[in-house]
Amino acid sequence: MKKFTLNLKIVFSFTVCLAFCVFSGFDLPENNTVFIQNVLTKYYDKDGQNQEVKRYEINVTNTGFCRYRKVFVNGKEEYFAFNLSRFKTMDYYGTSTKGDLYLRTKNDDVIIQTRNDSRGEIDSMGTYVVIPLKNIDVEELNALAENFKKLNQTLVASNK
C-alpha cells in the first residue's frame, strides 16, 4: 500500500509539473491584447483633452487591431485605428501624474476619421496615435511596451 501511495504521489507531481511547464511556456496573443486594453483603459485621462470628452472607447482585438474613438460633448467624433502588425514604437511624454502615450507605426498606417466637425468630415492617414494617460508608473509603461512588442512580433510572424 505504501508503494502504491508513493507511486501515486510521483505520478501526480509529475503531471502537475508537466502541466505547469506546458502552459507557462506559451504567451498567447489574447493575453497581450487583454493586458494592453486593460492598461490603456485603466490609466486613460479623460480630462487630458483640449475639448471635453463625453465618452471614449479603446479596443484592442485578437486579430491585431487597435481602435480608439473619442466622442466630444459638442458631438464631434474622432476615430483612430491601426493594425498592430504595423506597430513600430511607443513613446511616453510627461510625468507619472499626467502625460501622452504616442503609439507609432512604420508608415502612414493609422486611419483617422473625424465626424460632426465644423470643418467637415475628414478621413486621413497618420503615423501615430496619441492617448492621454494619468497616474501611470514606469513599471506599467515598461510592461505595456513589452506587450505591444510581443503582440507585434506574434502578428508579424503569423502573417508570413
Give structural notes.
This protein has 160 residues and is an alpha+beta fold. It has one domain. Helices cover 37% and strands 36% of the residues. The chain contains 3 helices and 8 strands; from the N terminus they run H-H-E-E-E-E-E-E-E-E-H. The strands form 2 sheets. It has a 5-stranded antiparallel beta sheet. A hairpin with a 4-residue loop joins strand 2 (65-72) and strand 3. It is elongated, with a radius of gyration of 21 Å. The N and C termini lie far apart (56 Å). The model has no long low-confidence stretch (mean pLDDT 86).
Notable traits:
160 residues, alpha+beta, 5-stranded antiparallel β-sheet, 3-stranded antiparallel β-sheet
Number of domains: 1
Order of helices and strands: HHEEEEEEEEH
Radius of gyration: 21 Å
Number of strands: 8
Q: Mean pLDDT across all residues, rounded?
A: 86
User: Strand order across the biggest sheet?
Assistant: 1-2-3-6-7
Shape: elongated
Strand and helix layout:
Elements lengths: L1 H23 L4 H14 L10 E8 L4 E8 L4 E7 L3 E8 L3 E8 L4 E6 L6 E5 L1 E7 L3 H22 L1
Antiparallel strand pairs: 1-2, 2-3, 3-6, 4-5, 5-8, 6-7
Helix pairs in contact: 2-3
Keywords: Signal
Give a short summary of the structure.
With 160 residues, the protein is an alpha+beta fold. It contains three helices and eight strands, in the order ααββββββββα.
